[in-house]
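Worked problem 6 (solution included).
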Amino acid sequence: MTSDNLRRLVDIRVSNPHAVREAAAARKPAASLIGDHGRLMMIAADHPARGALRAGNNSMAMGNRADLLDRLCLALSRPGVNGVLGTPDILEDLLLLGALDEKVVVGSMNRGGLAGTVFEMDDRFTAYTADAIAAAGFEGGKMLVRIDPADPATVTTLEASARAISRLAENSLMAMVEPFISHRMDGRVKNELTAEAMIRAITVASGLGTTSAFTWLKIPIVEDMERVMSASSLPALILGGEVSTDPARAYESWSRALELPTVQGLVIGRSLLYPPDDDVAAAVDTVVNFL
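Solution. The predicted structure is:
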């Protein structure tokens, strides 16, 4: 993004804040949740709002907004990419840049559990609401549901997530739920990435809300994925997680997961936006070929 383009974004936000709403109203919506390849291929970019800026060895990779927007626009322009996940600030920049036409747009909802804080498990809904997502004409909302058996704040997150799922369903919108069993270890929250933990998390997440009709799951790669994904009949998307030092191995694991009956696509963020060789287009195209 040139300095002129960045300045144009800032000027619009200063002089005409209503341009965001106008751009949302003018956006051409996606015809379907799945693309021509029969899958949902999404780029995730909701990490910064949780204070999680690391990608690979660069602890501040996502801290440069112009660079992040460049990478997002490039990824979204590649054939086969039919969706994006983000918080209001990022999605509104993309709206103003005209990058969201005919894309599945999912707004990230609970961003209160900031990474590395003592209140991380109290994951309050501080970004999109279901009503705001519906008003913007987006296709769904995403929530992170971390379940820590030792932290009472977990039940608050579960209750808020259930309300959000129900409200999204009332608007016939996708609820994308990312569940984990989590524990605080040495002062940091760690997700338990075992088959048994993921099965437990999936079964809890699948039962949240007054209906599961519009609920999709967002699941990491762990051992024994066939057994893990048999825990629910809900459609699921595979998440990318941290940038791998062995991209070929990560790509292979995503490809294998796509063979499972409930897996309907991928939601990949840093691994495609900040690949080790920094070739965003090549990384995206490689993964799209798996669909």
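Discussion: Residues 62 and 141 are 22 Å apart (CA to CA).
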